[in-house]
Write a structure and sequence with these properties.
about 120 residues; alpha+beta; Beta-Lactamase; five-stranded antiparallel β-sheet; 4 helices; about 40% helix; globular
Length: about 120
């Protein structure tokens, strides 16, 4: 992968992934793709609040800098990865998606992903 757009495309093409969104820590959409009718700009706007509270929990428990947030819902999973001090990656997946493999790949390639943003 050499561009953010390619990152979004690769993640979005995985089985069971409904959305891949790269956004700034301020919630501004950098790039994203999702199944209709999901609005990636609207979704991106909610992510910073989740990350802020997750980091506060991390601070309170002494766990250090936040790297990943995993939210499980009735109809799917939202995964948020801190790519850099300025950018986040949101992946929205169906409950049947192979998240173990996806999470492994994203964590293994975090340095390469960080270089894109």
């Amino acid at each position: 992968m050499s561009t953010i757009r390619e990152l979004v495309a690769v993640v979005r093409q995985r089985d069971g992934v409904d959305a891949a969104v790269v956004l700034g820590r301020d919630g501004v959409l950098i790039d994203g793709a999702a199944v209709p009718p999901m609005d990636v700009e609207r979704v991106a706007a909610f992510v910073p609040a989740v990350v802020r509270f997750a980091q506060e929990l991390s601070d309170a428990t002494g766990q250090g800098q936040l790297r990943t947030v995993l939210l499980e819902h009735d109809a799917g999973i939202a995964l948020i990865l801190a790519l850099s001090d300025d950018a986040l990656l949101l992946v929205v997946a169906q409950p049947t998606a192979s998240l173990g493999g996806l999470l492994y790949e994203l964590r293994r390639n975090r340095a390469e992903l960080r270089a894109l943003v």
